[in-house]
Please model this.
Amino acid sequence: MISEHIDGGKPFDWGRTALDYAKFRDIYPWEFYRRILDRGLCTAGQRILDIGTGTGVLPRNLYACGGRWHGTDISARQIEQARLLSQGMDIEYSAVPAEELNFPEQSFDVITACQCFWYFDHETVMPRLYRMLKPGGSLLVLYMAWLPYEDEIAGASERLVLKYSPAWSGAGETVHPIEIPDCYWERFTPAGHEEYLLKVPFTRESWHGRMKACRGIGASLSEEEIALWEQEHRSLLEQIAPESFEILHYGAWAQLRRPGIGST
Model:
């Protein structure tokens, strides 16, 4: 069931964007990952569950830091791409909704959720995450978004998405803390949050692909609508963007802990 607060309830399917997602959405700069590691998270000796893993961007980029990863996602097509991109890495993947996760109790030192937290039925998911975390373990919620009111190219691209997908609720981002539903405070304790600016490099082609792989275009429009949007967006970028440029984003994290022994 699609939540009414996301795109007015318009259906979307991340599986439809799996190829573009794999090619164009592995874009987090090292600064994004460094702030995770600075928290002592996702490092050697830790077992980590990445929910909503998509194409495995987080596990793949932090794999060399020594943690043992298991990524899950509701989309089997996304998980297929994650496995292909993770060849040679000892990363486990499962296609399963967050609401159905059922790993043994106290299986993980860290659970991460990147770009996906608002999709979950939190009253169902929260007790499962609590049960699967070890005492003292951390739930780390992560996010990165472009800033359309501060970046001219991002703003123009966003307005074109809204032309084709008026109910898209991913528009209009500003810098703000990640919102954590109240139900989490029944069992978790806050361990900090941070919001910071990032400049992310793109070419016209990679920015076009990034925008196509957003929920308002590739995951929800018809093939005919996507083709029309692509033609118009490429023309727009030729008019307003150099071949290479940076887009202003902000990154954010929020860390919650399961009370108990340990400090992960």
Summary: DSSP finds eight helices and seven strands in the chain.
